[in-house]
Amino acid sequence: MTESISHQRVLKIAVPIVISNATVPILGAVDTGVVGQMGLAAPIGAVGIGAIILTAFYWLFGFLRMGTVGLTSQALGQGDHREVGALLSRGLLIGGVAGMVIFVLQIPLFAVSFWVSPASAEVEGLAREYMQIRVLSAPAAIAMYGITGWLIAQERTKAVLAIQFTMNALNIILDLLFVIGFDWGVQGVAFATFIAEWVGFVFALWLCRAAFKTPYWNDWPSVFDRARLKNMMLVNSDIMIRSILLEAAFVSFLFLGARFDDVTLAANQILIQFLHVTAFGLDGFAFAAEALVGQAMGARNQTALKRSAYLTSLWGGIICLGLGVVFWFAGGVIIDLMSSAPEVQAEARSYLIWMTLAPIAGIAAWMLDGIFIGATRTRDMRNMMLISSAFYAVVVMILLPILGNHGLWISLLLFFVMRGVTLGWKYPGLVAAAAK
Q1: Cα–Cα distance, 123 to 109 (Å, whole number)
Q2: Maximum distance among all Cα pairs of the chain, rounded to whole angstroms
Q3: Residue 231 included in any domain
Q4: The whole model's pTM is what?
């Protein structure tokens, strides 16, 4: 690691990711807005449910980004440029094959999706039209996980921002052209995303062009090296199990919240957005931790590793404290902007205290996730998530009957805390491994 670990270096990695994340809700709002101009409810629901289903399938391969960051950053730390090039090719191949599998199996996958989450005949029909078009870009969308992880590992987050901005800007322009201009309706939204994802993928490959000028990316014995592939599979499988458990906790939270009345359910949906904002704000610093810790681990530099973990966590903590203060003083205003129903506003306000505490409760878990991903200590991540998930289940069973929705929120925050505590328990072992 030739460059020192500094505040400037951390911010250089993190800030483009934070800006990139800020563009995501804008695209969702435009997608909804353009179909809303049709004056019908069904198209809005179709685009919403179709996007959720496809995102869920793509998300199953989200491990590709995290695993690629850790492995690539460690290869960089070791000065193994052959492996860096091979990892790019592996990510592209895995993403491409995964996307093709989803495309080939789309009929049974979509059928199961609508069986689990049924909709009206009109909404389901429109959603199928939307998904049948968008799934054509599945190979590009999933391969992008690998490219993004590869770029983050090299601290090229400005490139990640450029890709995200290009895709979203083109998507918005095509939304307006196809839906408002050509009156293509739901299909227009799907075609806009399909084109934007393939253009974004090609642009991402162009940004990686230097790698394709080396002999490493197509050194097939290295790309398909059995030991390297086995290690990549182990890392990715651990991350996938950890991510499924994490998602299960959030899904169970939503399902348990649905047992309450409609007003409480609506309030919870609004308050969940506060957690999304927190995650968007922290992602940049967690990604910085992934890259810097991974490089330090690869170089077997304990000092750099500890400083990387400290500085990224320091900035993550500052962001979390700032968000907690904003939620405390402006949370009511934010709630009012998200709902005009007085009963929902009042209900959401009664749980606002948990939103002010959520960033503080979750900071250790979020930042340690990035640190452990960079170090590829994924077995520890998986095992600590198993412990935390079991703890969450027990706490929910105890607190939900006693405190109702307050108990549900407290359980979620304690889940965050337990994740931080358990990973913190394993952190000294991670640091010690850097010297081996």
Answers
A1: 17
A2: 64
A3: no
A4: 0.92
